[in-house]
Design a protein that fits this description.
The protein is an alpha+beta fold. The chain is built from 5 helices and 12 strands. The strands form 2 sheets. Strands 2, 3, 4, 5, 6, 7, 8, 9, 10 and 12 form a 10-stranded antiparallel sheet that branches. Strands 1-11 form a two-stranded antiparallel ribbon. The chain is flat and about 95 Å long.
Length: about 280
């Protein structure tokens, strides 16, 4: 009887040790899988590691970057200069309430753009028009987060070096443009807002050196160089001419001319063995 009890006890101890080992092995496998670096294939499954067409871009962005496609980059027009997106074209009737690089206690760090207000301050400028600071391609129009509110981002090429930069217009009450549209300098893109009551009415305006959609992203420093540029410096280095931008008119004219062009008839096939000649040979 005692021998049977000892065998039973040993059996239960063996089963307990076996179960403990199995649980430990499973925990080790799960823990190791969680810590293992993702393969390139797994990384490519993220929407932010793919080239996403503008018309399929989600209105609400998660944290990350969406790279512009090469076919979008080639559409980006070269600017003829930059002007203020609010007030008069030279910035009259507006002021900068929080300059670029100033301490930003609410969000931490330094301010990555400018907070442009109408001269009345507070909410007196709510609903005032916001215009494209330069001719460009709309690469984002949506609401990346509640605190950002409505945001429009345009891509531009700088004259001379054709470098791609972006202008970002945030906290808008309304957006009037959609991704993929080409705009002339001064085209209305929305109205000044409050980001649904998160701030007094103003336009948060940024200039960004990037080939990724930066809506809702904080500024960062690739290779030690801040990718947010001082808007005042960009506007002063590339001032817009005093006349309105003729970009829209020229584009409409070229599209109309292309539509009116009739295809030329294909030349008649040359019979085999014949020697092709032109009338000029006999002049």
């Amino acid at each position: 009887m005692g021998g049977k009890m000892r065998i039973s006890r040993v059996r239960w101890i063996f089963l307990g040790l076996l179960l403990t080992g199995f649980v430990s092995l499973a925990a080790y496998v799960i823990w190791g899988h969680a810590r293992a670096p993702k393969s390139p294939h797994q990384e490519s499954q993220s929407i932010y590691n793919k080239d996403v067409p503008s018309d399929l871009m989600p209105e609400r962005l998660l944290v990350g970057l969406i790279q512009l496609r090469p076919e979008d980059i080639v559409k980006i027009p070269i600017v003829d200069g930059f002007e203020s997106p609010v007030g008069a074209s030279n910035g009259a009737m507006s002021y900068d309430a929080q300059p670029f690089g100033s301490p930003n206690p609410r969000r931490g760090g330094n301010h990555c753009g400018e907070d442009l207000n109408g001269i009345g301050g507070m909410d007196t400028d709510e609903g005032e028009p916001v215009r494209a600071a330069a001719r460009g391609l709309v690469i984002y129009s949506g609401k990346p987060s509640e605190e950002w509110g409505n945001v429009v981002v345009l891509a531009h090429r700088l004259p001379g070096d054709a470098r791609v930069i972006q202008t970002l217009y945030a906290h808008l009450r309304e957006r009037s443009v959609s991704p993929g549209r080409l705009l002339a300098r001064g085209t209305p893109i929305g109205t000044i807002g409050t980001a649904d009551g998160h701030y007094p009415a103003h336009l948060h305006f940024e200039v960004i050196a990037s080939r990724c959609v930066e809506a809702g992203m904080p500024g960062y420093s690739p290779s030690g160089v801040m990718n947010r540029l001082d808007p005042d410096e960009v506007l002063s280095h590339h001032p817009a001419p005093s006349m309105p931008d003729p970009y829209d008119s020229i584009r409409r004219l070229r599209i109309r001319e292309a539509a009116l062009q009739t295809p030329t008839a294909a030349p008649a096939p040359v019979p085999e063995g014949a020697i092709p000649v032109t009338p000029s040979q006999f002049l």
